[in-house]
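Q&A log
Question type: sequence-to-structure
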Amino acid sequence: MSYDLEKIFKTGAYDIRGIYPKEVDEEIAFKIGQGFVKFLNETKKTKSKKGARLKIVVAQDNRISSPSLYKSLSRGIIEAGADIINIGLATTPMFYFAVAFYGFDGGVVVTSSHNPAQYNGFKLVREKAIPISGRTGLQEIKKFALSKKITVKKRGKIVKKKILRDYVKFNLKKINTKKFSSFKITIDTANSVAGILLSDIFKKTPLKISYLFKKLDGSFPNHDPNPLKKQNLKFLRKDVLKRKSDLGIAFDGDGDRIFFVTEKAEIVSGDILTALISDIILKDRPKEKIIYDVRSSNIIKETVEKRGGIPLMSGVGHSFIKEKMRKENALFAGELSGHYYSRDHFFYECPFSVLFLILKEMTETKKTLSQMVKPFKKYYHSGEINFRVEDKKKILSKIDKKFGKKGKVSRIDGLKIEFSDWWLSLRVSNTEPFLRLIIEAKTKKILDKNKKKVIALIKKG
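Response status: OK
Response body:
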């Protein structure tokens, strides 16, 4: 089979994704397994001591194609001479936990995150669950995958390991969930792998949980596992109102993103949640660094500074955020897309810690979620607006030329231009074929005026 590896191994991206089996199939899974082992063996920081075999964690989500891709990936790894620690079905945070907590050499999870059912792919990490991105190894792994098959005298072996109990214990260790009020919560897992751990993580709490689409089904029959899209939250919002729940929660396809809906069925954006969490944690841990992505509201920066913390802006994507967190030793980070990260969780995603912090605050303050987020809704935010354009660099240059001289320009990720009463962010997506625009302003009038102006320029080409 002939592969368009440039399409699935994007230079700026942080994982490998494509349509199964057109772009990603068993053959490429085998090659990735082989290339990954060669990459780790040739990377000094992960090279095994005294000739010991690498120990690589392998996991999978519940997509229909995942078991088959897992088998081929595993065959590639063991034929290249590395041992596999098979943790089976797992969310991506569970996978990261297994690599970091037990001290393994790296890992691969078969998943395509929030993408529709016809997609699949791979997320790869090295020791300590450090992500491997286009800048830090994916391109080398691609080259190794295209090279000659690796043959070794002694094949690796597969060892099964159960991690659920340790993962649940790790998430619950710092918060006494028994002291929560008996909140009613609706949870939508979109038939995804996140459903495997909810019963265990909530069983010793007084919470009253109602589930939507908890049964695993890799065809995602009810809606795509992407809670960033408003239409995918319609069932959750309806159920929250019907049951009079205190809040609603939605997970994405691999369980590393969490979205919140208030008791009024209002969607809480990721940047507002980041501002709220920052406000909560900086009360007890001032002077800590908090990271947010270029798309997020100015309310995060203002909140962090008000609480005595240090706000830092980052490019979009988990590998870039985690890299900056480690470099800065940041306490917490949040993205508009619903990813939240914690230093206490080896710098990877911590959806349940975020949930428990929210519930703890609701219990102690006796406030509803809508009351808690209201003070942070200071600005008017456009949300992400996507454009399919042929020449993305041309559009970025055009917007830069038009607005750059009048505002403060940042090129951390694409183009961000800030003015006294509004800002715009325009960047190329790392996961989809889009140019993404976001505008925030102090008033709706200023937002609408500038949104219309920028969109017209983009559409003009």
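Response note: The chain has 15 helices and 21 strands.
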